[in-house]
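Box 3.1. Reading complex inputs
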Amino acid sequence: MKLFRIRGGVHPDDRKQLSAERAIENLPLPPLLHIPLQQHIGHPAEPLVKRGQLVRKGELLARSQGMISAPVHAPTSGRIMGIGGYPAHHASGLSVRTITLHPDGYEEWHDDCEEMDDPFSLSPEQIARRVAESGIVGMGGATFPSAVKLNLRKRYQLDTLVINGAECEPYLTCDDRLMRERSEHVRDGVRLMAKSLGVERILFGIENNKPQAQRAMREAAADYPEFHVVGLPTRYPMGSEKHLVQTLVGKETPARGLTADIGVVVHNVATATAVFDALKFGRPLISRVVTVSGGAVKNPCNLHVPIGTPLEHLVEYCGGFVDLPDRLISGGPMMGQPLPSLRVPVVKGSNGLLGLTLEETQRRDEMPCIRCASCVSACPCGLTPLSMAAFIRVGSLEPSVELGLLDCIGCGSCAYVCPSHIPLVQYFNYAKGELTARQRAQHKQGETKRLAEARTARMEAIKKAKREAMAKRKREMEAKKAAEAGAAEQTKQEEAEA
Amino acid sequence: MIDAPLIGAPYAHQKVSVNRTMVLVMLALTPATLLGLYQFGWPAIFLFVITIAACLIFEAFSLQVMGKPKKVFLMDGSAILTGWLLAMTLPPWAPWWIGVVGAFLAIIIGKQVFGGIGQNPFNPAMVARVALLISFPLEMTLYTSPQPLFSADAPGVLEGLAITFGGGALAIDAVTSATPLGHLKTELSRGLEVQHALGSTDSVGQLALGTASGSLGEISALLLLAGGLVLIGLRIITWHIPVAMLGTLALLASIFHLMAPESYAGPLFHLLSGAAILGAFFIATDLVTSPVSVTGQLIFGAGCGLLVFVIRTFAGYPEGVAFAVLLMNACTPLIDYYFKPRIYGRDRKGQPLQYGDEGGEA
């Protein structure tokens, strides 16, 4: 198949060999599971269980709220210990609403989790509904509710489903293992999503550094002519949704738009597996595969982990740290998040847990920019990171927006190549956050003003109505008085006459 | 548990640093420099060392005044490289104070007053060279013929010291000789034709190998070219500026040479003489003062080539690389402003791409 070139990109040392040959292992149940209600983009789920309640594996714990949200299910059977604040799987370590579950060890499935003979007999609507009910979100890290993407067929003319098997982040091998070990399940999950989307063409992109996964998927897909497994050049950020689509179909997604604008929807390998499990076995998304790796980890491996497992259990299972890690990261080293501690739980979007040594991070003090333009040639989005950062540094955010700040995908290629070790992405993330905050403040100000004005108008209206009512009453009174006076006069006259 | 500051991804980094960039540029300059030092002997070596040392001292002084950490910035290699490049553009037998004044102009006036590394709009070495040339025309245009170290006529260490600290080539009765470009300019102004003018001066072969007279950096176009190609190979610089600059220079020289061979020298002479190669690979490509986009770099390079040709051919100075680079440096912010890369998903004007009407298929 003809591939199209994308701009920029970098070739980081992928270090996948650390865990690529380790088959997926099941992590034993921890003593406590901490299941956050917000594991996805959108509104947090609303809890349906109470403290002390017994739940079974796969039972609904919290339902989705609003258009963009996802429900949360019990990863195993056990007793609900409470619903309260617990440190989030986030750099801030702020506490979020979390359900704590004490596993009873019986692993008893809920009655709703029934196997289905032929999930392909379901209609597109039914597939999308079940995906939504199963709490499936984008498992490549973005955690966007998958059903919302499956329902894009209603608003866009779609022709292609692209499956992102690029796994371009260094270290991560969880998708690689899924493609090798569960290739037929992945294939059927993908075909179910294609059916739900109503598209005729499936492009399954896998980077060329995963030849076994390519072979496994090609074999699995051999009988399906609409299913194309495509080898992708190994280059970061090949797994960026928009760049993957451009490589495969040759079209750029319009700025501020969706890939659906050019008729393409992208889903991830792990998501496809979750879709298969949900439709075939009736199992909601309650576990996932996580790569535990990095130079500081004793035995890097790929673990199948119940959602809510504190990260320390993963590290412990892998033999602990051989070295004090310089960084503890959730996700890959290019776009991952630093973790505040190992107490935080695995969530639906956790694809990696990395303990990196200083030699791996190459962390150094920041130097002034020497305008070498390495960042300009590395940027896959055609931006000028050095100028954007220069503006942000002095606090003027609007010029950086004009230079394309909001078109930045935060891939980190610029910061990766910067000889001055300037944390460019940090600048951009700061600016994006600050802009949002300013917009929110401005919106709030506008709303306050609008409400205040509305109140003044309302008060005026009330006053006016009161005045009018008063005037009316006065008139009536006067009329009455006049009438009475008239009547009295008449009576007087009548009396006089009499 | 982890004391690293909380900062956004990536947590992996290419093994690059400012230091490494500067060191690689110096390594690329080394062969040509060594040849130059050999050709011009002890006075050249003294001048080279003095210039670089003076640059470091002025850099340390500035850092002290500004309260910046000295160790980090002195060791970044930028001051050494500036001194190195400046020394390569000076007449090799110039007196010591030329090097020191040059270092002052380069580091203080050219770089630190703007805020130090990365902030200077003009190439510091070229600022110094042009200021010296205008202020001290005599010392800055007195060139000697190469007298290789240990050859019969070459000055020894003591004699070298006398030349460098005594008053340069003027002080002794040195064998002075015009640079090929200077010679050509003089002869053409006397009404001679190019063939005759060049007949008595160095051949193209001498220019390429570095046995003609000139500054350190004008010596051996071939070694400089090799160094430049290494830099491109190591991705320290890209091909755009050198190719655009030398291409434009060669093209213009060819056109004029074909139209009037008796009045205009050919492209090979232009490329190999003077600081064309040094300028194209090491000076115009200065990271700080050149544009960042590919289009911008091509325009910048072409502008340099054009100006070099115009100055050499029509202006009062025989050589124009320094002037050309400085003039184009002044245009860099403008070029950067107008020639940005196209943003993904947007057209050249910055509007989101449009496919058809419905937002569906094209």
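In summary: Residues 18-66 of chain B form the longest helix (49 residues).
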